[in-house]
Write a structure and sequence with these properties.
globular; two-stranded antiparallel ribbon
């Protein structure tokens, strides 16, 4: 039972990341009809928002302490983060919690990046074929990768978990098991809760706000909404920015789990597109359901009992499930009839 529960938590953890990226992809396709292969690069940029934010917080001030001498007799240099020197214990807290606080930095940065990307490039390909959209956005992703590589190098840049969240939670006790029967990293639980919160916020925004209702109406009948005097294009631009924010904050919070490098976006992009297709192109609930479903399946497929029987099944299980689902239901689990369906 504890092994099953552990794999379920692993799957939900992976599924949260898949669902967040797929949610942004689906927002863009559902509103603009654009297949955005640069979305993985937005996840990568979100990761490096966390890197940059920590770098800014840890810029050091150097002072010389003549009373402390090195083994060579030279005065010792004392290096203290500038923010800690200014703010004391509060500054130390900011440095320690740089990853979760980087979300506040990533939101405006990713919103601006998303809007500039949509206005500067994507809008010119609304009426082009999906093949052309894929080519141009994939090219943009490569350009963004190389820019990041030129600034930060090719090596991964690990980000630390806040000290209070480096422990393991006694999950087994929550389900009535003996103490310490099943423990799970606290930060992974934090990421799962964070992903659920972002997903819930996006759904609430789209369903219960006037802005979201107008956008959903524009998705259904863009021309009629335009006739009513509503600038639906401007709203769609903002939605593209929101999709970039969702990918960015997902990346920023994921950095303690997987050290970011310039290729991290591509690693998640392919899996996320599989999630979107399985859930149904343009279906927000489908993207979320498929993200968690495929994450759980991948987690269970990685168990030793499974891989000893079918080696490598954990690497291909997502694609096998996608093939089966699309053979049975070409529009995906919750896709609309006629959308990407032959």
């Amino acid at each position: 039972m504890d092994a099953i529960l552990a794999q379920l938590l692993n799957g939900l953890d992976k599924g949260g990341a898949y669902a967040l990226i797929a949610l942004g992809l689906t927002l863009v396709f559902g509103t603009l009809g654009v297949v955005n292969f640069a979305h993985g690069a937005l996840f990568m940029l979100g990761c490096f928002c966390a890197v940059v934010f920590r770098y800014l917080l840890t810029i050091e001030t150097v002072t010389i302490d003549p009373e402390q001498l090195s083994p060579w007799g030279a005065p010792v240099e004392l290096r203290t983060p500038l923010v800690q020197d200014w703010l004391g214990d509060w500054g130390a807290f900011l440095v320690d919690y740089s990853v979760p606080l980087s979300v506040l930095f990533a939101v405006p940065v990713m919103l601006v990046i998303g809007i500039v990307m949509e206005r500067g490039l994507i809008k010119h390909f609304y009426k082009r074929s999906h093949a052309e959209q894929i080519l141009v956005t994939f090219g943009l992703a490569i350009v963004l990768q190389e820019i990041v590589k030129s600034f930060f190098g090719a090596n991964p840049m690990p980000q630390p978990i806040p000290s209070d969240l480096r422990s393991a939670a006694d999950v087994g006790a929550w389900f009535g098991m003996e103490a310490h029967t099943l423990t799970y990293p606290t930060w992974r639980l934090v990421y799962l809760l964070f992903s659920l919160g972002v997903i819930g916020a996006v759904f609430a925004f789209m369903r219960y706000t006037t802005f979201g209702m107008v956008v959903r109406a524009g998705m259904a009948d863009r021309e009629t909404v335009g006739v009513l005097g509503i600038d639906i294009d401007r709203r769609f631009t903002i939605i593209f920015g929101i999709a970039a924010v969702v990918a960015g904050v997902a990346g920023a919070m994921y950095t303690p789990l997987l050290a970011p490098n310039y290729q991290i976006g591509m690693d998640f992009l392919v899996l996320s597109f599989v999630v979107v297709v399985v859930g149904g192109m343009g279906s927000l609930p489908g993207a979320v359901v498929a993200g968690f479903l495929l994450g759980i399946l991948q987690s269970f497929a990685s168990m030793n009992e499974i891989t000893s029987i079918i080696p490598g099944i954990d690497q291909v299980i997502i694609y096998l499930v996608a093939i089966v689902i699309l053979l049975v239901r070409p529009r995906g689990l919750m896709g609309r009839s006629g959308v990407m369906e032959s």
